[in-house]
């Protein structure tokens, strides 16, 4: 039994290391994949339905990072684990599943958080450059409330189909911003 547990832990950390990038050379590492990660549309599947998102080419590092993680299977069996009061839903890699790098900030004046915007979360501690989390994202459900996020979180895409599904996730019963029943999702790249 002990050997089985050790094998599981080894597999967990060795698989996770494939998702990580060299924290010092994130930009260069992502740009190397620009030929193989050319897509900019994804589909999110949940028990409440599916929705589609389009990633903005004006934020190439965020787009490349997100597509890379989708193609590598990082977002399989993840959860929308937070319902941000009056603002949106958050999902992705949480706590123990955090990756070891940050994505350099790419603030675009024209990309303001509005209803349906896709943005990356950010860690405040030890992050003076305001770089983004590589794996925690949120989707805005209310433009007025989200205005306070302008230039604090990088908007790098938008929901293009199925906003009603996002609204259903947002309306799920929650306690202290945690859904009582977290909504599991999978993401796949669309052609």
From TrEMBL:
Keyword terms: Isomerase, Rotamase, Signal
Broad class of enzyme this protein falls into: isomerase
EC number: 5.2.1.8
The protein's name: peptidylprolyl isomerase
Species this protein is from: Aquirufa aurantiipilula
PPIase cyclophilin-type domain location: 48-183
InterPro entries documented for this protein: Cyclophilin-like_dom_sf (IPR029000), Cyclophilin-type_PPIase_dom (IPR002130), Cyclophilin_A-like (IPR044666)
Gene Ontology molecular-function annotations: isomerase activity
Keyword Signal: yes
Leader sequence residues: 1-19
The UniProt record lists the keyword Signal: yes
């Amino acid at each position: 039994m002990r050997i089985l547990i050790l094998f599981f832990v080894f597999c967990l950390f060795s698989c996770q290391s494939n998702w990580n990038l060299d924290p010092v050379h994130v930009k260069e590492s992502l740009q190397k994949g620009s030929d193989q990660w050319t897509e900019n549309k994804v589909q999110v599947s949940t028990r409440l339905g599916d929705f589609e998102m389009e990633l903005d080419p004006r934020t190439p590092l965020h787009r490349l990072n997100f597509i890379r993680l989708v193609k590598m299977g990082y977002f399989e069996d993840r959860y929308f684990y937070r319902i941000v009061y009056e603002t949106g839903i958050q999902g992705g890699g949480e706590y123990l599943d955090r990756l070891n790098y940050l994505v350099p900030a790419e603030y675009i004046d024209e990309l303001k958080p509005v209803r349906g915007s896709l943005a990356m979360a950010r860690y405040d501690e030890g992050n003076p450059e305001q770089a983004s989390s590589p794996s925690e994202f949120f989707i805005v459900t209310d433009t007025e409330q989200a205005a306070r996020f302008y230039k604090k979180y990088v908007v790098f895409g938008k929901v293009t189909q199925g906003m009603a599904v996002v609204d259903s996730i947002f309306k799920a019963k929650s306690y202290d911003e945690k859904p009582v029943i977290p909504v599991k999702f999978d993401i796949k790249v669309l052609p």
